[in-house]
């Protein structure tokens, strides 16, 4: 005879409010430097590749360590892991604020990724264990997904305000008070939970999972950018071999680091891919369009951040829109609708020119955030509802690994398309001006560098170079938008095919347990 799941108490909901604090910062830190790139470029003078690494290394380390850290949390306690991660995150934030060289900033961002990887699985697995009633958990997951979407969307807004008011270093220092608050409130409001069946952690699995994720993401970055092709292929082979060995090992371990058999379940597999592609769209659009506001339209960080407000509002509301719609419409169709809305957002880039109104960019970002936010909310709910509470850490790691791979792909793939098209267009246009080769190389490396070069040259030649760079950047964003739209169409079809039939109120954990045996 089945019994009703216990409902959440006010203390539980206050605990959820505490959990979204680190989640907000982890997701904010994924995008907070996007508006700060021009200021950082002027201060530290990083190359175009170093700029990408400043953004990407955070998500790369996060993705590589999430599976391992989720298992550590399952074994030793998820609340304990959360608090340890808060300390690491705070120390890394201090290091980032004190960076005086590009490599120092990249190292600090990597350490932030370590702290984020320790904390992030605990936020989602604790939600799964705190909210046992399916209806309450759906709304709790909607809040979690809304905060994840808001964090990604609000990162540039908050970063823009902080950078304009203080400096880019302050974007790191803002993390410290929040981490202190978490360390105070966490022990008071969050329950401890762990997996009682997990008695040992397989170190080799941790090494293989990290090597596999690191190799895969680095290969994507290198191959998508068209540089270090040979090294990218080597990384791809290493990553693929490590992932294959990791999967084979999980299938024979009595207590695997990740329950890979869940990927044999159509709903679970479909939700993970939908989750990945949704955040891919949001971060990729942010990376490209926010730079257009600053570097082409000439808005300062605070002005640019104000134009991003609509997308932040829609990102926050998207999860609740999805949670309401799913009462009447199957999750597959709501997710597909969200991804279709994101497609329309990408399609607006077809009308982008160097003189376009900021409203066009704000509209495109708003539609992408609304659609991606709807998909994120429901895909996360399906993933976490597919497992029993004791397996929540593994499901959380899978969901968040997809999230971080999507973040990395958004900047690596779409960012690399943007940079490659821009560089080719500027090199072609600037070469016709009889400029020195080193000047052409500088101007074609990044839009920010082109602004500096045009200013140094001055006169009609500088104005002509600036015009070439601005048109090249606008064209590059259009090409990037077309690529993003195609990927979203594929993702929408994928979600309908793989998630069709998954009812919003089904006990997926019971259905999927058969796949584990």
Walkthrough of the structure:
By secondary structure, this protein is mostly helical. It is built from 20 helices and no strands. The mean pLDDT is 82.
Topology at a glance:
Elements: H1 10-31, H2 37-44, H3 48-76, H4 78-97, H5 102-130, H6 134-165, H7 170-173, H8 175-189, H9 203-225, H10 229-252, H11 266-296, H12 301-307, H13 309-325, H14 331-347, H15 358-384, H16 392-431, H17 437-445, H18 447-457, H19 459-499, H20 508-513
Helix pairs in contact: 1-5, 1-6, 1-8, 3-4, 3-5, 3-9, 3-16, 4-5, 4-8, 5-6, 5-16, 6-11, 6-12, 6-13, 6-15, 9-10, 9-16, 11-14, 11-15, 11-16, 11-19, 13-15, 14-15, 14-19, 16-17, 16-19, 17-18, 18-19
Q: What is the radius of gyration?
A: 22 Å
**How far is the first residue's CA from the last residue's CA?**
23 Å
In helices, the fraction of residues equals over 70%
- How many DSSP E strands? 0
**Number of helical runs?**
20
Mean pLDDT: 82
Stretches where pLDDT is under 50 for at least 5 consecutive residues are none
H/E topology pattern: HHHHHHHHHHHHHHHHHHHH
Structural class: mainly alpha
What profile does the largest beta sheet have?
Answer: none
**Percentage of residues in strands:** under 5%
Shape: globular
Task: Fill in the keyword field for this structure.
single chain; 0% strand; globular; 517 residues; mainly alpha
Condensed summary:
The protein has helices spanning 10-31, 37-44, 48-76, 78-97, 102-130, 134-165, 170-173, 175-189, 203-225, 229-252, 266-296, 301-307, 309-325, 331-347, 358-384, 392-431, 437-445, 447-457, 459-499, 508-513. With 517 residues, it is an all-alpha fold. α6 (134-165) runs parallel beside α11 (266-296).
């Amino acid at each position: 005879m089945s019994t009703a799941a216990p409902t959440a108490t006010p203390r539980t909901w206050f605990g959820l409010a505490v959990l979204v604090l680190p989640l907000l910062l982890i997701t904010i830190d994924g995008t907070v430097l996007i508006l700060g790139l021009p200021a950082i470029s002027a201060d530290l003078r990083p190359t175009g590749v170093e700029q990408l690494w400043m953004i990407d290394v955070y998500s790369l380390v996060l993705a590589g360590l999430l599976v391992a850290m989720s298992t550590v949390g399952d074994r030793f306690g998820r609340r304990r892991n959360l608090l340890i991660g808060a300390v690491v995150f705070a120390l890394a934030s201090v290091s980032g604020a004190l960076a005086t060289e590009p490599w120092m900033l990249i190292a600090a961002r990597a350490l932030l990724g370590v702290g984020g990887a320790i904390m992030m699985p605990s936020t989602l697995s604790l939600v799964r264990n705190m909210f046992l009633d399916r209806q309450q958990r759906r709304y709790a997951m909607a809040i979690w997904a809304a905060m994840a979407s808001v964090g990604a969307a609000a990162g540039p807004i908050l970063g823009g305000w902080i950078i304009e008011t203080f400096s880019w270093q302050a974007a790191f220092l803002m993390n410290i008070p929040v981490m202190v608050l978490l360390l105070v409130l966490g022990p008071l409001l969050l329950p401890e939970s762990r997996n009682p069946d997990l008695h040992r952690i397989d170190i080799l699995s941790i090494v293989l999972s990290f090597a596999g994720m690191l190799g895969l993401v680095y290969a994507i970055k290198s191959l998508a950018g068209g540089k270090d092709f040979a090294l990218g292929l080597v990384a791809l082979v290493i990553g693929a071999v490590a992932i294959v060995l990791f999967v084979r090992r999980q299938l024979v371990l009595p207590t695997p680091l990740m329950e890979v058999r869940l990927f044999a379940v159509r709903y679970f597999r479909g939700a993970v891919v939908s989750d990945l592609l949704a955040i891919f769209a949001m971060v990729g659009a942010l990376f490209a369009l926010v730079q257009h506001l600053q570097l082409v339209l000439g808005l300062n960080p605070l002005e640019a951040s104000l134009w991003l407000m609509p997308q932040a509002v829609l990102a926050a509301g998207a999860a609740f829109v999805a949670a309401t719609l799913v009462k009447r419409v199957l999750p597959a169709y709501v997710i597909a609708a969200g991804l279709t809305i994101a497609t329309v957002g990408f399609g607006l880039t077809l009308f982008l020119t160097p003189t376009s109104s900021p409203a066009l960019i704000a509209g495109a970002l708003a539609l992408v955030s609304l659609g991606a936010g709807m998909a994120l909310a429901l895909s996360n709910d399906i993933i976490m509802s597919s497992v029993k509470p004791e397996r929540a850490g593994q499901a959380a790691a899978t969901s968040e690994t997809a999230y971080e791979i999507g973040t990395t792909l958004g900047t690596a793939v779409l960012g690399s398309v943007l940079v490659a098209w821009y560089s080719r267009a500027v090199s072609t246009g600037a070469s016709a001006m009889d400029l020195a080769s080193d000047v052409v190389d500088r101007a074609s490396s990044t839009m920010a560098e082109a602004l500096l070069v045009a200013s140094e040259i001055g006169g009609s030649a500088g104005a002509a170079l600036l015009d070439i760079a601005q048109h090249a950047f606008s064209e590059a964003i259009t090409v990037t938008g077309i690529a993003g739209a195609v990927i979203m169409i594929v993702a929408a079809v994928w979600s309908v095919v793989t998630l069709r039939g998954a009812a919003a109120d089904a006990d997926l954990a019971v259905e999927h347990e058969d796949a584990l045996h």
